[in-house]
Amino acid sequence: MMSLLSLWGFFSRRANGFFIALALITLLGAGLRLIKLGEYPGGYGQDEAINLYDAWSLLTTGAEHHGDRWPLNSRQFGDSPSTLPSYLTMPFVVLFGPTEFATRLPCALLNVAAIPLIGLLLFHLFRSRAAGLFAATLLAVSPWNIYFSRWAVSPGFVTFYQIAGMCLMIRLLTGQNHRIRVYGSAILTGFIFFLWTHQYLSQYFFAPLMIGVGLLLWSKTNWPRIFVAGGVYSAFMLLAILTRAHDPATAGRLQNECIVFADHILRNFWHNYWDYQSFQYLFHAPPMLALHQIPGVSHIPHSLAPFYGLGLATLLAAIFIPRRLLSLLGRPITPDDIRHWRRAALWMLAGFLLAPIVGALFTQKMYTARMTHLLTQVLLITSLGCATVWYLLRRIPLRIAAPVFVILLAFYLGQSTVKTFKGLARNDLFFKEYLQQGVPDVMRYLARQPDVRSAHFPRMLQGYIYHLCFTPVHPTRLNHAEVSPPSPGPDERWRYAEVNKVGNYFFNQDLNAVDIAKNSTLRHQVRDRNQIWYDLYERNGDWFVVKHSETQP
After folding, report:
1. pLDDT surpassing 80 at residue 466
2. Would you call the peptide bond into 143 cis, given omega within 30 degrees of 0 as the criterion?
3. From CA 91, how far away is CA 96, in angstroms rounded?
4. How much is the pTM?
5. Is 423 exposed, middle or buried (0-12, 13-18, 19+ CB in 10 A)?
6. Which residues, in sequence order, are CB contacts of 507 under 8 Å at separation 6+?
7. What pLDDT digit, counting tens, does each position of 499-551 carry?
8. Residues sharing a CB contact under 8 Å with residue 131, sequence separation 6 or more, in sequence order
9. CA–CA gap between residue 189 and residue 429 (Å, rounded)
10. Residue 56 · residue 93 · CB < 8 Å
């Protein structure tokens, strides 16, 4: 124990101890996100496949797979999601080719970068190294962030942009750097604001609200740099909004799932809002996603709930009784510190109150379960609660209590992380089925066959994109007309684009698996350990891909 205390004293005495600790925490988070990245999670989601093929297509043709040249939005799902993930994937396709690893690496790296940034964010907000280190640690081992870091879907990028945007904003509004450096930072801040807002449709609501509240709180003496950052942000956002306004279909989910178009608007909104603020949602995680199927894995580990409550109490105390709070915690009590803590608390509380609004506006909870901005706010508040305990323990005569608290918390988080990965391993087959395991292997096998006159596939989510990625169909040879999403009727809800035919590959077929098994020759089975995913049958050059479970009598 004495050696641990000596080590802790070494770091606490050094001016750069905070950054050394932050670097070590980041290395831990990097390992959890990068090891076997191409293999886990098993399977390969259609969102990932689209990002990969669009990156490859943009590199070779300057257009995404529908033929749109250098778009800000892609015509994937009827709501035109952002093309930013594909642009980020392009350099990795150059390095590693069109592979699963190339798809997932940019998302994983950005979320690794989010770990030190969230530490710096809380450090600058409350001038507290302890709060910053707790925040970095909780994000590094957070189950939901580890999962979204390794699965390259659009919401997985949001955490980095949100944290980076808020961190740059605080530095810009409170820093006193050289003028040229300040305006360079303002340009970068405005551009990151754009990436944060445009990355995911929900952020069109949440990001401007958070940015606006921050400007109101820290705007008195910083108007020149605010105008520069705001001008850059507005220019890019105007371009993005005009692009969406040009095609009304880009509203997609907003038109079809928003409670504004349903009955009992206020009642539904109020119910949804508090549902997203509930303990059940934050600390128990109802089964909305594959991640939530793992026993014991939730958005935030259950045992951290008291720190979340204490963090909320700290925010309220910083707003209403900041002098007493700082005195209790043993923090500096100057007019500047009091103002800074109050503003920071107001901004974090605003984020806590605003974050569920986006989810409350939609009827389908599975959409908002993927909106990680709410979870980022909860993690920040929980980290502040942990820091409050640290400062209180340092005030008592038994000085060893604070380091022991950190050691016990680290042991608990380590145990929780091990439990998470054991759960992920036990549920490996579930994840693979959820992410269409075996489809890339099917396409790769068919690509090696010299006699494929036609290939017929059962209904699956955008199966055509796997054909484009892994057969592969080079983007310069793609017939864009074949993969243009069909226009839905006036009374139809949004749906995944159903492409029925690309070349001699036919998708979304109603195949009679038993009849095919009787009248065709089994050529290949795609399997994983003892699990057989697909049977591939051939008859006179016509190939039929059927789920193995459907061929059994």
Report:
1. yes
2. no
3. 9
4. 0.90
5. middle
6. 457, 459, 460, 463, 464, 467, 498, 499, 500, 501
7. 888 999 998 778 888 888 888 999 999 988 778 889 999 999 999 999 887 76
8. 122, 123, 125, 383, 384, 386, 387
9. 42
10. yes
